[in-house]
């Protein structure tokens, strides 16, 4: 059954309606252009039959308005005309899809309707193909971007790692040498209980006791800082690991920890917001066969989304209330069965968008410019988890109770 709108004079409407309804099609009729356009927007027809011979109907304006309307443009527009009038019609820049000469013959009319059905189906297939091509193009661009970024970051991390390793390893010797020199100085102080005035003055100027106490603390702090830098470098290298080796076994818990380390700078308190507390409940997970770098990217996008949601929640509250609000992100993992694991990333944001689920399940729907980065991140996460790894990404969102992303990943690639 095809939905058809006929815009024509009374006599033509009667003929068209009778012929089409007998064939089981759903037909709506309108005697003028204004009523026809209004009815078209309500009815959303598959085909529109418009009488171009009626002086009361400006068929050219109707045709252009229909094709300019995003919701109606896909309707198959059939113009009713005459052989004499058609010569004039051909000279016009009219975007109609087909034409039919009056008087209307049943078989010709039904043929146009069938042609319209095939045309719409071909157009839908073309749109689906274009969307699939766009998805493939997006995946290729994403993979190339991640690969290039991974190589760049890995190279930078390697360059930083060399000098920091030199500093870190030599700090052990510095600490040992400093300890020996302090002990030697203390022995001198014992052996020479009454040093000269010049030495006493220098000791007083230097505050020797404070220096001896603080020197080893400084070296220890430097060791702690260097160790922290080394950990960050290792995490960056692990996060941006190249997937050129294909599918590999990967520890999900390590991936989440590395991701959190890279996002650590976004968690401390800011103006109008308290610290974001990250609670972790990791299960005893087996290693997963996956593209590790891509999964890390998906985790990064989703956790970033949670941080954004918590910041927006704090901004929407009154100043006194925002200081009481305690932003929390909960990350938990568990084994579902012998073949799958789950990762849950939830926040306690006060407000959440009802469109999030649609955004992650329709990767090509990138909405308002202000939302592009966030939505694109979710779309990329969807492609990585669902399309690349044959897993599931679900979103549960309820105003006042935050948003939860549930990820399910198969343990082995099939």
Describe this structure in words.
With 414 residues, this protein is of the alpha/beta class. Among the domains are: 3-104, 3-Layer(aba) Sandwich (Rossmann fold); 243-414, Heat Shock Protein 90 (2-Layer Sandwich), CATH 3.30.565. Helices cover 57% and strands 17% of the residues. The chain is built from 12 helices and 12 strands. It has helices at residues 10-22, 33-43, 59-68, 83-90, 106-191, 197-206, 208-239, 252-262, 292-316, 319-324, 356-361, 372-388, and strands at 3-7, 26-30, 47-51, 76-81, 98-101, 248-250, 277-281, 288-290, 328-337, 340-347, 392-398, 402-410. The chain has a 5-stranded parallel β-sheet with strand order 2-1-3-4-5, sandwiched between helices. β1, α1 and β2 form a beta-alpha-beta unit. α6 packs across α7 (208-239) and α9 (292-316) runs antiparallel to α12 (372-388). The two termini are 42 Å apart. The model is unreliable at 362-373 (pLDDT under 50).
Assign the CATH superfamily of the domain at 243-414. Answer: Histidine kinase-like ATPase, C-terminal domain
Q: What structural class results from the helix and strand content?
A: alpha/beta
What is the end-to-end distance? 42 Å
Uncertain runs are 362-373
CATH class of the domain at 243-414: Alpha Beta
Q: Looking across the biggest beta sheet, what order are the strands in?
A: 2-1-3-4-5
Principal-axis shape: elongated
Total beta strand runs: 12
């Amino acid at each position: 059954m095809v939905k058809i709108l006929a815009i024509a004079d009374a006599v033509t409407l009667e003929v068209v309606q009778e012929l089409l309804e007998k064939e089981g099609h759903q037909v709506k009729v309108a005697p003028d252009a204004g009523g026809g356009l209004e009815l078209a927007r309500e009815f959303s027809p598959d085909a529109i039959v418009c009488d171009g011979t009626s002086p009361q109907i400006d068929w050219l304006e109707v045709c252009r308005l229909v094709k300019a309307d995003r919701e109606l443009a896909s309707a198959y527009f059939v113009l009713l005309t005459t052989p004499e009038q058609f010569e004039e019609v051909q000279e016009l820049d009219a975007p109609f899809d087909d034409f039919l000469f009056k008087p209307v013959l049943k078989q010709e009319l039904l043929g146009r309707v069938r042609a319209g059905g095939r045309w719409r189906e071909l157009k839908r297939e073309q749109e689906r193909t274009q969307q699939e091509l766009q998805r493939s193009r997006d995946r290729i661009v994403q993979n190339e971007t991640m690969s290039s970024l991974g190589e760049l970051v890995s190279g930078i991390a390697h360059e930083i790692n060399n000098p920091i390793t030199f500093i870190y390893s030599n700090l052990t010797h510095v600490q040992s040498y400093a300890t020996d020199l302090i002990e030697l100085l203390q022995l001198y102080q014992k052996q020479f209980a009454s040093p000269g005035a010049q030495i006493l003055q220098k000791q007083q100027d230097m505050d020797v006791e404070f220096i001896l106490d603080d020197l080893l603390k400084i070296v220890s702090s430097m060791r702690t800082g260097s160790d922290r830098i080394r950990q960050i470098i290792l995490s960056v290298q692990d996060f941006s690991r190249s997937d050129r080796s294909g599918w590999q076994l990967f520890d999900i818990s390590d991936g989440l920890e590395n991701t959190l380390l890279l996002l650590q700078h976004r968690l401390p308190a800011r103006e109008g917001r308290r610290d974001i507390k990250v609670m972790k409940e990791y299960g005893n997970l087996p290693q997963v066969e996956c593209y590790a770098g891509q999964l890390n990217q998906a985790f990064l996008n989703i956790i970033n989304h949670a941080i954004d949601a918590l910041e927006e929640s704090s901004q929407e509250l009154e100043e006194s209330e925002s200081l009481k609000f305690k932003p929390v992100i909960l990350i938990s993992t568990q084994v579902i069965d012998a073949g799958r694991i789950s990762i849950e990333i939830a926040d306690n944001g006060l407000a959440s968008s009802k469109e999030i689920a649609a955004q992650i399940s329709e990767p090509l729907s990138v909405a308002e410019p202000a939302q592009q980065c966030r939505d694109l991140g979710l779309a990329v996460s969807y492609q990585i988890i669902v399309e690349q790894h044959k897993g599931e990404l679900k979103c549960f969102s309820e105003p006042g109770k935050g948003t939860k992303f549930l990820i399910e990943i198969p343990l082995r690639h099939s």
